[in-house]
Amino acid sequence: MKNEVSRKSITEADDETLKIIAERSPDPVLIHDGERVLYANPKALEYVSAEELMKRKLVEFIHPDYRAIAVERMTKVMKGESVEPYEELFVLPDGREVWLETNPTPITFRGKRAVLLILRDVTARRRTEERYRDFFENSLDIIAVTDLKGNFVEVNRAFEEVFGYSRDEVRGRNFAEVLKLSKDVAEEIFRSYNKAFRERKNVYGLLFKVRRKDGKEIIVEGNVRLLWEGSKVKGFVGNFRDVTDRVRLEERLRESQERYRSIFNYSPLAIIVFNDRAEIVDWNKKAEDIFGWKKEEALGKNIIELLVPEHLRGEIQLIAERILEGEVYTHSINENLTKDGRVITCEWHNTIYRDAKGRIYGLSIVQDITDKIKMERKLKESEERYRSVFTHAPVLIAILDKDGRFVEANPAMVKSIGENPVGKELSEIFPKDVAERRLNHLKKALEEGELVEFEDERGGKYFINFYLPLELEGEKHCLVIAQDITELRKLNKLLREMVEVNEAIVRIGEREELVKKIEEILSDYSAKIRDSGQGECLEIRYGDKTYGYLCVENVDEEMKPLLKALTDDLAFAFKSMEDEERREELLKQLVENIRTIAYLVDRIRNPLAAIRAFTELFVDDEEVSKKIIQQIERIVDIVEKLDVSWANSEKIARMEKEIYDLSKIEKKFKKD
């Protein structure tokens, strides 16, 4: 401007009427000449001081993104043209941003052409609209707005992602047509909407099947709210979720519960469930047969007081406490009481489970082994029975004299060696280092009169060996019980590596880093994840898409099913990196695979159980037998690390609604 504008000229108007109206206005009012502010009412000065208005051009208060259009509008108004109100973003001297609706009018002020600018602060409304729009667009729920005829007015991003339609494709089209609803479903939904409209009430709990653009059928669940405009209903707002996986899971759960109940009711073993107060909460038919108490008589009774003789209650109470404190498995054989007062001997396999609310229950599987024990005693007394068991035992059994010469060997031992060793010394059968090592262990057992347990390797195979001194016909001998654990070691190694891979899948969100980690974990198998499959490769495939091939070496047929399950996990993982919604499915798959690993761990323990059984059969001395069994328990250390996978799967399964929160699951794994 040519003439400097004084502060007084800015804050005072020449026209008294204009001054009164402007100064009492609840909205900011400015008069400017296209560049400088000539007048500002008190409300305007609440936003910017008179000094700031004097120092800067009006356009300098407007956000750079809106300056061009603001200048264009000012120019038109200064020429006498009219423009519509427009919302512009202003930046105040203190840095605050406010949205103001600008409504300019050309006037003559102090004899010159000027612009009367009435402003209205719409910041709160704009922010509310932005929050609503942000919520609408980024909601995990499917949100669809329809008119009273059921035609789509607007849909959000979740709708587009789930159904495969863009919003432009569905606007103006009827929901029944777009979602390919069956006639019955369409009529049912129409009735629900119509009832909501008539009764002026929202609709809750709708569940129905729809089809996506690609024809895939899914199940959605949600609520419908009335869309009001003043006192009139103008349409409906539907909030829905894709619950296909949940519904199908519930169906599988019902089927599983039915199977469980069938197994529970008709099991050949007694099954007893008790709560954290040791009160019986379930009791199957076999339990009725064994103990004589009907289910309705047993429910609510203390399991120890009902079934355990008084002199054993302290010992059994400790076992029950261990179970209820979270010990995964306990085993015991003890005397029990029946309703008619008989004392029987039962074998108890005890574990725990948690219900949906996290409450711990004890689960006991019980077998009446009273007759079995009697038979075993007779078996020990019978040489013929002894010989039969010795002959058919799957574990390796032999008797050596003090010089390491074979006196007896069962068929399993003969098969393992490749010839009948009876009458031959260790040095005549095995390589020098193997023979010397075993002879030293034999001498140690005879000299110390103690059980000797060791692992060794022969011809690429690994064995767990128990050398027990005994006396036959006045001479020192050694009973040998051995088991080939080669496959156990291989499977143990692969299962540990699979647990590491599954944990890596949960923790790592980048494909390149995940691939590198998997190849590192499976390096002993020369594992590589390649784009094409050549040689011993398994396809990493999800649906119709292949994400590469897992190529390995040095694996046998037993390992391939596990590796195939691993490729399924990888496919889910790679898919989940593209599609966030698949993370839920990935986590479910991991839970199932970790449970499979736990099942395999139990299978690994079977050979160890066999050694235990044959030890009990062949060794009469209870103290010595106990020592052997204690040594067998040490073998379980080979697979204890695998039990981590079972513990993790239990933790994941207990999370319920939290199971799909990836960050919490990652924290669980990191913590463990």
TrEMBL record:
Looking up Pfam families in the UniProt record yields: HisKA, PAS, PAS_4
Domain PAC, which positions?
84-134, 204-255, 322-381
Residue ranges occupied by any PAS domain in the UniProt entry = 128-200, 256-327, 382-418
| GO BP of this protein | regulation of DNA-templated transcription
The question of whether Hydrolase is a record keyword is answered with: no
Kindly give the NCBIfam families that the UniProt entry links to this protein.
Answer: sensory_box
Q: Which domain of life is it from?
A: Archaea
Query: Which protein are we looking at?
Result: Signal-transducing histidine kinase, putative
Q: Which organism is it from?
A: Archaeoglobus fulgidus (strain ATCC 49558 / DSM 4304 / JCM 9628 / NBRC 100126 / VC-16)
Record SMART domains: HisKA, PAC, PAS
Gene3D superfamilies for this protein: PAS domain (3.30.450.20)
Entry's InterPro entries? Biofilm_reg_signaling (IPR052155), HisK_dim/P_dom (IPR003661), PAC (IPR001610), PAS (IPR000014), PAS-assoc_C (IPR000700), PAS-like_dom_sf (IPR035965), PAS_4 (IPR013656), PAS_fold (IPR013767)
Which GO molecular function terms does the record list? Answer: phosphorelay sensor kinase activity
